[in-house]
């Protein structure tokens, strides 16, 4: 079928239709897709299609197979990320079309579904996150370059795992905790001017029963819902302190470790005592630990967040406000939060080269941070041109696949 007839079909369909190329970028969209997503047709074109989905890792990987491996993906369900920020429950199919030329790619057809049919997306919290970004953990739930962007690394997953339910994932995570099958990866935070690594963000992975590497987008949502995320956060913290105490590569006192704290853990004041015990046991310098808290988690229960953060600040630890700009933090609230870094949400950085609005927003965020005596970290840095713009507007640090992909920590036994 030619690309012309594919577009004719798309425009005649009652479903939302997105056509993507072999790299997963939107090449055509019908009016129904535009209406459902809340974006104009021009805004959709050229964007990675996964930017518009809030998906569990297994679904993202399945969807991607349609245009990377030519495998039809039928009967999927998930959530669209509408321009308003509201998620939209959908069911969708992705069908490749045969072509070795520039028209290779896939059609994705979707339609609204009853949201009660499947779980709403939740913040993945601990040590990773979602976002297209860089594991920053991110934060699958944040869907960034990291863990959602690390979807290709999930292709070695055993065929049986993607169908597991939440209870099965929780059971598997408990077994992994018992058998010490979680591992830490790291991703560099870099000075945008000197290109020197100033910190490493720690990201969690799980080794499956057969030794396969399982990305956090698979297991963290279930852990968040069940409360097991608090145990995982403690595991990461304990290992991070051990790493800082024992790993010779971290002898440089100027290099810090970033640890993601989940929404549930942020309200767990008992964790302060646990961290104090780990500090006393290892004797590390607390200024070399930066706890990352998402903007939405911090303002969700502000008073609890402030109590937690102030307690740890008194011990010498530092904080970064992650995904800054994605929430609704006012200047008054920002002045109350004891954060040292604002991690600018990757959605603003990704289009910095071509979008003057994003550039102005980033410039404004940097100016606000400087006025408040805070430093900025730009997430999802994709290329040299974006890095130059960040230098121009005065950003301090950057993170993203261009500056360094998530990698295993060498010579450290988790």
Structural overview:
This protein is an alpha/beta fold and 414 residues long. The protein folds into two domains: 3-115, PAS domain (Beta-Lactamase); 153-408, EAL domain (TIM Barrel, Alpha-Beta Barrel), CATH 3.20.20. 36% of the residues lie in helices and 26% in strands. The chain has 15 helices and 18 strands. It has helices spanning 3-12, 31-37, 41-44, 57-68, 166-179, 216-226, 229-246, 263-266, 270-282, 295-300, 302-314, 331-336, 346-349, 356-371, 384-393, and strands at 16-21, 26-29, 53-54, 73-81, 87-97, 105-112, 128-133, 138-145, 182-191, 197-207, 213-214, 256-260, 289-294, 318-324, 341-344, 375-378, 397-398, 407-408. The chain has an eight-stranded mixed β-barrel with strand order 9-10-12-13-14-15-16-17, surrounded by four helices. Strand 10 (197-207) and strand 11 form a beta hairpin. It is globular and about 65 Å long. The termini are far apart. Mean pLDDT is 80; it is low at 1-5 and 115-163.
Short key terms for the protein model shown above:
414 residues, alpha/beta, Beta-Lactamase, TIM Barrel, 2 domains, 8-stranded mixed β-barrel, 18 strands, 36% helix, globular, disordered N terminus
What's this, in brief?
By secondary structure, this protein is of the alpha/beta class. It is built from 15 helices and 18 strands.
């Amino acid at each position: 079928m030619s690309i012309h007839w594919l577009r004719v079909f798309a425009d005649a369909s009652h479903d939302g239709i997105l056509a993507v190329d072999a790299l997963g970028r939107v090449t055509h969209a019908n009016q129904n897709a535009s209406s459902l997503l809340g974006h104009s047709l021009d805004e959709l074109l050229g964007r990675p299609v996964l930017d518009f989905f809030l998906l569990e890792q297994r679904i993202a990987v399945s969807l991607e197979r349609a245009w990377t491996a030519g495998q039809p993906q039928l009967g999927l369900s998930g959530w669209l990320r509408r321009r308003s920020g509201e998620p939209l429950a959908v069911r969708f199919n992705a069908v490749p079309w045969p072509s070795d030329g520039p028209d290779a790619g896939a059609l994705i057809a979707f339609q609204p579904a009853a949201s009660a049919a499947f779980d709403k997306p939740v913040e993945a919290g601990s040590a990773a996150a979602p976002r297209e970004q860089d594991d920053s953990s991110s934060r699958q739930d944040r869907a960034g370059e990291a863990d959602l962007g690390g979807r290709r690394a999930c292709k070695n997953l055993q065929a049986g795992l993607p169908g597991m339910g939440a209870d099965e994932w929780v059971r598997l995570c408990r077994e992994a905790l018992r058998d010490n099958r979680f591992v830490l990866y790291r991703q560099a935070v870099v000075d945008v001017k000197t290109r020197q690594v100033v910190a490493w963000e720690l990201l969690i992975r799980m080794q499956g029963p057969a030794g396969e590497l399982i990305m956090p987008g698979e297991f963290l949502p279930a852990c968040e819902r069940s409360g097991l995320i608090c145990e995982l956060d403690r595991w990461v913290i304990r290992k991070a302190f051990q790493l800082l105490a024992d790993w010779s590569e971290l002898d440089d006192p100027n290099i810090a470790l970033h640890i993601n704290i989940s929404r549930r853990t942020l309200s767990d004041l008992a964790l302060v005592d646990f961290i104090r015990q780990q500090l006393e046991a290892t004797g590390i310098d607390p200024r070399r630990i930066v706890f990352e808290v998402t903007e939405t988690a911090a303002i969700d229960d502000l008073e609890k967040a402030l109590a937690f953060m102030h307690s740890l600040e008194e011990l010498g630890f530092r904080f970064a406000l992650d995904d800054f700009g994605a929430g609704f933090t006012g200047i008054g609230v920002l002045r109350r939060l004891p954060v040292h870094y604002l991690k600018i949400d990757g959605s603003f950085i990704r289009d910095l080269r071509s979008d003057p609005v994003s550039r102005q927003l980033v410039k404004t965020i940097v100016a606000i941070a400087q006025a408040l005596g805070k430093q900025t970290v730009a997430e999802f840095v994709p290329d040299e041109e974006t890095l130059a713009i960040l230098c121009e507007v005065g950003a301090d640090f950057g993170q993203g696949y261009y500056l360094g992909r998530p990698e295993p920590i060498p010579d450290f036994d988790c």
